[in-house]
Amino acid sequence: MSNSTYRIQGATGEWEVVIGLEVHAQVVSQAKLFSGAATAFGAEPNSQVSLVDAAMPGMLPVPNRECIRQAVRTGMAINAQINTWSRFDRKNYFYADLPQGYQISQLYHPLVGEGQIEITLDEKDPDSPVKTIGIERIHVEQDAGKLMHDQHPTRSYVDLNRSGVALMEIVSRPDMRSPAEAGAYLRKLRTILRYVGSCDGNMEEGSMRADVNVSVRKPGEPFGTRTETKNVNSVRFVMAAIEMEASRQVDVLESGGTIVQETRLFDPDKMETRSMRSKEDAHDYRYFPDPDLLPLELDDAFLEECRASLPELPDAKVKRYESELGLSAYNAAVLTAEAETARWFEQLLAAGARIQKKSEADVAKASANWLLSELYGALNRLGRGLDDSPVSPEQGAELLALIADGTISGTIAKQVFEIMLETGDAAGKIVEEKGLKQTSDTGAIEAAVAKILADNADKVEQYKGGKEALFGFFVGQTMKAMQGKANPQIVNELLKKALAN
C-alpha cells in the first residue's frame, strides 16, 4: 500500500495528508467504570445514574473488573504491550454534563501500550497490499453525560445516563496517508472489537466514535500542524471529514495563512468541518494522579485468563479458511469481515459435516457459496440480517445435504429454499410433502428423452450435423418434461447415448 497513492493537487504542487485516529469505544459491560449503574442504550434520561455518577459528596469510585478485563483483552488482540502497573489521572475541565468537574482518565501510565493493526485497502482483493498501522496506546476512561438542546425552547437539559460509562480510547500513530486507509483501519478495528466482544462497534448508537487528527505537508517535509475533528460517528463520515479538512488546510496554506491547532466539528449535512475551540495541551487540563484510586496491578493469573478467553481473530480465521478449508481469498475475507457472519458460517459448516458425514473442508465450498449468494441475496431482498434470518444454520445444512446426496437438484433446491423462507419449515419436510425428490429412475428419464428427440427431429439432425450447442436445449426440455426432478447427471448421460445412435 504505497504512500504515493493519495495526493491533494494544490496550486503550488502536490500535498500529502497525514492522519491519526483516536477511537472512543464503549466497553461492553453491565455496569459503569466506577459504579454499579446500568449501561443499557435507550433508557429514559437520568434513569441509570448512581450517586457516584452524580458526584455526590463523599462518593468514592471503585474500578469495575470487567471493564479492565475487556480493555486488556482488546490490547492482546492487537498484539499490544499490556502494562501490569497503570494508574488513573484526573483531567480537569468544566462541562455541564460532567458533575465531578473532572474526567477520570489515564495520561501518564495507560493500561495498554504499543500495538499494531494490519489493514488492506480492499479486503476482498487477495492481491491488495497490506499496511501496518501502529497503535500508540489504549487507555481506559469514563464518558461524560449528554446535553439535550432540543427539548425546550430556551433551556438545555442534561442526561447523565452516559456519565461514568467505560470507554477505551484507542490512539493510533499518524501512519495513515489517505481517507481510504483511515476507513480500512476503522473497519478492521471495529471487526476486532466485535470478535473480542469488548465493544459492539455500533457507531449509530455512539458506542464507537472517532476523533480525526489531520495535517498536510509537502511530501518528504516534516509533519504540519494538525487539527482534531471530534466525535465523527461513521466510517463514511470519517473519510469525508479527512477529505474536507485536508483540502481546507491546503487552501489556507496556499493562500499564505497558517493552520491553527484546534478542535473542529464535522457537519455531515454541509460536508464541511468548522472550528469549535482552540486545542488545549495536556498541561491545560492540570492532570494529576486520582487520589481516590489506587494504581491497577495485574497479576499473571488475570492476564492468563484474559488471553485464554480470546476467540480466533479475523486474520487467523482468514488464513485457516484458505489453507484448511480451501476457500477463495474473496470468500474467506467476506465470511470473516463480521463476527456474526463467521459464527453463522461455522454453525452451518458443523451441521453440514455432521449430516453429510464428511470433513469440514469437503462441505466448506458449497456452504460458503450458498451462504454468500443464495442466503445473502434472500436476506437483502427481505431487508433482514443474519441475526433474524428465517432460515437457521441447521436448516441451511439440511438443504445442502439434500443437494449433496442427490435427493434434490440445484434447481429444485431454489424452490425449496423459497418455501423455507416463507414458512420456516425444514427442507426435508417440504421435499416430502410436495413430492420434489429428484428421480434417478433411468426408465422414466429414457422415456422422456425419447419423446423429446422424436418431437424435435429437425434439431436432432442439426445437432448431428455439428451444431453441438443444441445439447443444452435437449437437457432443458428433458428437465422440463420431468418437472425439474430428474437427476441432471443421468439426463446428460442418457441424452449423449441417445444422440450417439
UniProtKB/TrEMBL annotation:
Keywords: ATP-binding, Ligase, Nucleotide-binding, Protein biosynthesis, Transferase
Tree of life domain: Bacteria
GO molecular function: ATP binding; glutaminyl-tRNA synthase (glutamine-hydrolyzing) activity; transferase activity
Pfam families linked to this entry: GatB_N, GatB_Yqey
The keyword Protein biosynthesis belongs to this UniProt entry's keyword annotation: yes
Gene Ontology biological-process entries: glutaminyl-tRNAGln biosynthesis via transamidation; translation
EC number from the UniProt entry: 6.3.5.-
Name of the top EC class for this enzyme: ligase
Similarity comment: Belongs to the GatB/GatE family. GatB subfamily.
NCBIfam families in the record: gatB (TIGR00133), PRK05477.1-2 (NF004012), PRK05477.1-4 (NF004014), PRK05477.1-5 (NF004015)
UniProt-recorded name of the protein: Aspartyl/glutamyl-tRNA(Asn/Gln) amidotransferase subunit B
Classification of source organism: Bacteria, Pseudomonadati, Pseudomonadota, Alphaproteobacteria, Sphingomonadales
